[in-house]
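Morning - flavin-adenine dinucleotide inputs below, output right after.
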Amino acid sequence: MICWPERISGGSLDSKKMKLSQFDHKTPTSRKEVVDLLTNLGQDSAILAGGTDLIPNMKNGTLMPKTLVSLKHLTAEKEHLTKDGSLKLDALSTLSQITESPLIKEKAPSLAQAAFHVGGQQIRNRATLGGNLCQESRCLYLNQSHDFQFVEACYKRAGDCCYPFPDGGKICRAVFMSDMAPVLITLGAHLVVLGSHGERQVDIADFYTGDGLKPVNLGPTELITSVLIPLESQKMQCRFFKATPRGGLEFAMVSIAVALTLDKNKKKCSKAVIAVGSINTKPLRALEAEKHLTGSLLNRSDIVEISKNAANEIKPLPHHGYSRGYLKQLVEVYIKRSLIDIIKTVDNKNG
Amino acid sequence: MKQAIELIINGETYDLIVTPNVTLQEAIREHLGLKGTKAGCEMGTCGACTVLLGDKPILSCITLAVECQGLEITTIEGLSEGPTLSNMQKAFVRAGAVQCGFCTPGVILSSTALLKKNPQPNVNEIKKALEGNLCRCTGYNSIIEAVLDAADPSGHLDHQQDQEIKL
Ligand SMILES: Cc1cc2nc3c(=O)[nH]c(=O)nc-3n(C[C@H](O)[C@H](O)[C@H](O)COP(=O)(O)OP(=O)(O)OC[C@H]3O[C@@H](n4cnc5c(N)ncnc54)[C@H](O)[C@@H]3O)c2cc1C
Ligand code: SF4
Ligand code: FES
Ligand code: FES
């Protein structure tokens, strides 16, 4: 039975609704200690980085960890180039640091752009790169304060229904809305992950599961420690565009990341990666469009068709009131803008 | 479990005993009684609870008090010196950039932080810095006027709307 919460049915206004329930708070001083704590505490614990995703999700009851393992006593390593030329970012870097870093702006400008478009400055000052990549997926029903929520819990909250997609099957189609993830996919980034078994590297392309119930491929004892962007990606022409209704403090309707390897003079494209975020349970690639671009000379008339085809192949989940058709149009328009912007830059350099 | 923490708010050190689920907003408003920090959405989406952590605006409603142990925080009460308002506060009065006033403490703190980093911002830079502060009354124009006025009381700056944001 679905019953209406008190506030809607005319009950009392309870200003304490936003209070967090009780939990324990640990402050380890090394990454190894974080992993040990997670191993000992088990499933009911969660890593707390900036808290800008976790705390709201705890307030609305989506997540209810019994212990938070805080990263506040860990020091973030400054971003730098490694021996093999990779750009290394600490997972603890805040999004403000990423927008302000001269090295990141030079070597991975689309990543700095994406960080600049997350939330508002108060969020970016706390939000970390690691937290952004591991954020909860979102759905209009899930991320409401409890008062506005249907009382019966959905699959994601360990219940037995789904409101937007009531076709059964225990499938959650909450949308993964990180702005940083699609950019890192286009840049071929690797995540360095530390766990009870030691360290491993994951290609970010394999990090997202597409399962709304567990969007990231991360074990319960694991922590992302850093992100590596390979040297060859640092030479690509890369763009990030985010479509929002208000133009600030907003999750994307869709976000588009594009990276092309170009032979500068001839405008010939030898490698193309296009990733779309906030579109489905994980970021999606426009593989057909990438194939079309690879090996071809960039020109405006082709780009119109490539963008159309990309919108055709991308399968959006309607989310937050946006229809499939509208989201497809956004994909087309923003891919077109990204590619035209790249052509303009190349033209300017050549001319 | 309760923890003893020390918060340095507006230059004064306060000793508090809190459970980890107490937010910085609750510590400031309810434990210390400083009500200038507002409680709006309490979910990180409106900016009414903005305070400065060091020089940086953050949202106190989604920050745990225990995470701020030993850190320096400025609330709206910390900007004025006795009865003397700060330059930004005076500019808000001059521009009439306050109606109900609920968003004002957060907006003034975000604007103060902006001018410290970028003393002569253009209109788009001001809009960007204030994107996380919602105001349901003023329509924002008077707020932008106030920030421009605080940055340049003589009014000599070029206040064109279409200036780009420098990243
Ligand atoms: C008003 C508002 C607007 C927002 N707008 C955007 C937006 O436009 N785009 C966007 O992408 N996000 C947005 N967010 C979501 C969030 O702020 C960001 O994703 C942020 O980067 C999360 O980082 P954090 O450090 O605060 O993560 P936390 O909240 O601390 O953590 C998020 C999750 O990641 C896990 N985690 C954190 N660090 C690590 C690590 N190193 N290794 C493994 N797991 C880890 C935590 O356990 C938790 O499950 C918004 C949030 C709010 C409240
Ligand atoms: S899509 Fe997922 S989060 Fe949304 S209602 Fe369905 S099960 Fe819940
Ligand atoms: S009260 Fe903190 S952002 Fe709204
Ligand atoms: S003055 Fe009323 S919300 Fe801004």
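Note: The mean pLDDT of chain A is 91.

O.
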